[in-house]
Design goal:
Blueprint lengths: L2 E2 L5 H6 L13 H4 L1 H13 L4 E3 L7 H4 L3 H15 L5 E6 L17 H13 L4 E7 L2 H12 L4 E6 L10 H13 L4 E8 L4 H8 L7 E6 L17 H14 L3 E4 L5 H11 L2
Parallel strand pairs: 1-8, 2-3, 3-4, 4-5, 5-6, 6-7, 7-8
Helix pairs in contact: 3-5, 6-7, 8-9, 9-10, 10-11
Length: 274
């Protein structure tokens, strides 16, 4: 059975005229454009997605300051209200610093920060926790421990980065295995170019890992100033064909990351016959 995870909020907000703000990325939109966030969640649901990610990628204390808890609670409430009650809400937990700058990571010292995010998301009613876009080994495991301690299903998504130079396939597979030992319920490849995701996914699968494996990749291009441009380099059809190859390799959780949108997820649903 294939689970369809939703796509991004940040680049989709940008595509709908809500530009990201440096440092807090899409978090500011929780206050300035909640109706757009709601519409995006609803569009993903209409596209066949049954797991919906909260807009909390940059609502942690470092990115959002004193507003972190209020933003985290508000973002979760928006997601829960926007999607069907039988769908699941995944609380997004991101690296405390720039996800593409593992050199800035505090490593295992980040665990208390991840724990406060995890407990807040769990308390707000998330059905599962999604530790996403991690590449620093120690911080990945710290976030995994923090999420698992909440007794919620925990998915861990690892990135090789837009240039695929943050983790090798072998290093990613090893880190995925370690996360599973700590209690991760699923491991995924994310925020990696869609055209280069397969080898990372296959490296994880080849370890004969004991949990579901998935992928949600990038279809956009790095922006000059902030994050990602909303224009797509990959057509929806091409992305769906790549997603089919991930399923053929053994993936059972499929979604989209930067540069994708509801049309990409709808194309996947159609291509896979879900």
């Amino acid at each position: 059975m294939i689970t369809l995870l939703d796509g991004p909020l940040g680049t989709e907000l940008e595509a709908r005229g809500v530009p990201p703000v440096r440092d807090c990325w899409s978090a500011k939109a929780i206050e300035t454009a909640p109706e757009v966030i709601t519409a995006i969640h609803q569009d993903y649901a209409q596209s066949g997605c049954t797991v919906h990610t909260t807009n909390t990628f940059r609502t942690n204390r470092r990115a959002s300051g004193n507003s972190w808890r209020a933003r985290t609670l508000a973002a979760t409430a928006l997601t829960k209200k926007a999607v069907p009650k039988h769908h699941r809400v995944a609380g997004s937990i991101a690296p405390v610093e720039d996800c593409y700058r593992p050199d800035l990571s505090p490593g295992s010292k980040s665990e208390p920060e991840h724990h406060e995010m995890a407990t807040t998301l769990a308390g707000a009613g998330c059905d599962l926790l999604l530790c996403e876009t991690f590449c620093h080994p120690e911080e990945t495991l710290a976030a995994t421990r923090a999420a698992v301690s909440c007794n919620l299903e925990t998915w861990v998504a690892l990135t090789a980065g837009p240039q695929t130079n943050l983790l090798t396939p072998q290093a990613m597979a090893q880190l995925a295995t370690q996360a599973v030992r700590l209690g991760a319920s699923a491991v995924l490849v994310n925020c990696t170019p869609a055209t280069d995701t397969q080898r990372f996914l296959e490296a994880i699968i080849e370890t004969e890992i004991s949990v579901p494996v998935g992928a949600y990749a990038n279809a956009g291009s790095p922006g000059d100033n902030i994050g990602w441009r909303a224009d797509c380099d990959l057509s929806c059809h091409t992305y769906a064909k790549l997603a089919k190859s991930w399923v053929d390799a053994g993936a059972t959780i499929i979604g989209g990351c930067c540069g994708t949108g509801p049309r990409h997820l709808a194309a996947i649903q159609e291509h896979l016959g879900l």
